[in-house]
TrEMBL record:
This is MerR family transcriptional regulator. It holds the Pfam family MerR_1. Residues 1-71 form the HTH merR-type domain. The keyword Transmembrane does not apply. It comes from Amycolatopsis deserti. SUPFAM superfamilies: Probable bacterial effector-binding domain, Putative DNA-binding domain. Keywords: DNA-binding. Gene3D superfamilies: 1.10.1660.10, Regulatory factor, effector binding domain.
Length: 266
């Protein structure tokens, strides 16, 4: 039997941590002296303690650690660990994107944002639209584009979308994604033919990952205000190059177009 102090030195788990794991039913001592309450561990418990230590270093929550240790099948255990690692990778990507945005905000690149005022004629497109919550945007977009791709194998241009202001201001609003078409297909599933109205847009291009697009939105908004324009309608985006074309985020290009009108004399 090893005392809790000896076991602590061998496993690099503090005595306080070992007590907490015991109380949580995660790593129970081999024996507890009924008179003194002293905890004693067996040398065979060292590997389990080391596994717990590594899992906790990966920020695996205690309930999940318990599930992993209680799963006898090695493949099932590997699957549980793999799921957590994927969540960590997703979190790391979000952190990297946030750091990139923050650096861009704190050290803006010199030079004025390139913005074009563009008149866009009415256009008929194959589209899917719905009221969508902010948390469901990515999943809804992927499903809608899959339907459009199946019905329009040869689009007449890059895909795009229209997003109501409420989606940004209230976290829920109308989304419309589309593919331009030369020959309108028959409606199928959620896909319908829609005519986008003619509009004047203030257009700029966002380079790179979509996670940092809010910075470009802010820069475009400042340009609109400085040029005595006002936003008049849903934001339009056109995905000139994106994940559908290449896995390299450095080559992605997204056009952002704000419908505008002048609020003061030029």
């Amino acid at each position: 039997m090893l005392s809790i102090g000896e076991f602590s030195r061998l496993t690099h788990l503090s005595i306080r941590t070992l007590r907490r794991y015991h109380d949580a039913g995660l790593l129970e001592p081999a024996r507890v002296d009924p008179a003194t309450g002293y905890r004693y561990y067996d040398a065979t418990q060292i590997p389990a303690a080391q596994v717990i230590h590594r899992l906790r270093e990966l920020d695996v929550p205690l309930p999940e650690v318990r599930r992993i240790l209680a799963t006898p099948d090695p493949d099932a255990r590997a699957l549980l660990v793999g799921e957590h690692l994927r969540r960590l990778e997703d979190q790391l990507e979000r952190t990297r994107a946030a750091v990139t945005s923050l650096r861009r905000l704190l050290t803006p690149e010199p030079g004025e944002l390139a913005v074009e005022l563009r008149r866009v004629p009415a256009t008929t497109v194959a589209a899917v639209e719905a009221i969508v919550g902010e948390a469901d945007v990515h999943g809804w977009y992927a499903g809608a584009m899959a339907e459009l791709d199946a019905l329009v194998p040869d689009p007449a241009g890059p895909p795009g979308g229209l997003y109501d202001n409420a989606l940004f201001t209230h976290g829920r609003g109308r989304m419309l994604v589309y593919l331009p078409v030369a020959d309108p297909p028959a409606p199928a599933g959620r896909v319908r033919m829609v005519t986008l109205p003619a509009v004047e847009l203030a257009v700029t291009t966002h380079p790179g990952e979509h996670d940092t697009i809010d910075v470009t939105y802010g820069e475009l908004g400042r340009w609109v205000v400085e040029h005595a324009l006002a936003v008049a309608g849903p934001v339009r985006e056109v995905y000139l190059t994106g994940p559908r074309d290449t896995p390299d985020p450095g080559t992605w290009r997204t056009e952002i177009g704000w419908p505008v009108f002048r609020v003061a004399p030029a």
